[in-house]
Amino acid sequence: MRHTYHEVEFCATKVALGLLSGKWKPIIFFHLASGALRFTELWRAIPRVSKKVLLEQLRQLEDASIVERTVHNGFPPEVTYQLTPKGAELAPILQRLDQWALTHIKGTVQIS
Amino acid sequence: MRHTYHEVEFCATKVALGLLSGKWKPIIFFHLASGALRFTELWRAIPRVSKKVLLEQLRQLEDASIVERTVHNGFPPEVTYQLTPKGAELAPILQRLDQWALTHIKGTVQIS
């Protein structure tokens, strides 16, 4: 049994899964899927995450070009985060994954 | 901003991503998406994985009810692995994730 192009495909999925494997990344992703949020809005929306950790996770999502950060000039200046077009294309896929999980994962699901 | 049912949804996705977060699990998953395979077939299909590690990853996928193991009586007895119905429902979702990754992830993608 020979595998050539398949290996690349499997790896692509692995890389995609890896991009979202941070502790808070799926939660950040879904909050931003509804639109841009200010940093403090996002922080308040996610229970039990420190600002430091949230910033780190956001930076990793920025590095992966899934999230973009915009500084709005003004007084005081405002920083918002939103999905990039590439990130937005992930939204319907993750919604289907979410549906699958809600259907099949039994018992109490906790943030851990 | 209050979050109630949303938290459960975000977590469901996180759990789903976690189920596939093992080093070889996406690769195992895609090989089995085409049909049942004997253990040695699966092992040969995946480059650079030890039998011990492959068995561990398969066991975790069995625990998650994504993969099932069948012992076929015969001489010698044969063990095959295949996706459960729950696992099979994941296939089209992961295929879309794969397409997204192939479109957007640039540069060399390596198994690591």
From TrEMBL, chains A, B:
Any one Gene Ontology molecular-function term assigned to this protein's record: DNA binding
InterPro entries: HTH_HxlR (IPR002577), WH-like_DNA-bd_sf (IPR036388), WH_DNA-bd_sf (IPR036390)
Pfam families assigned: HxlR
Keywords carried by this UniProt record: DNA-binding, Transcription, Transcription regulation
Domain of life of the organism encoding this protein: Bacteria
Annotated HTH hxlR-type domain residues: 11-109
Official protein name in the record: Transcriptional regulator
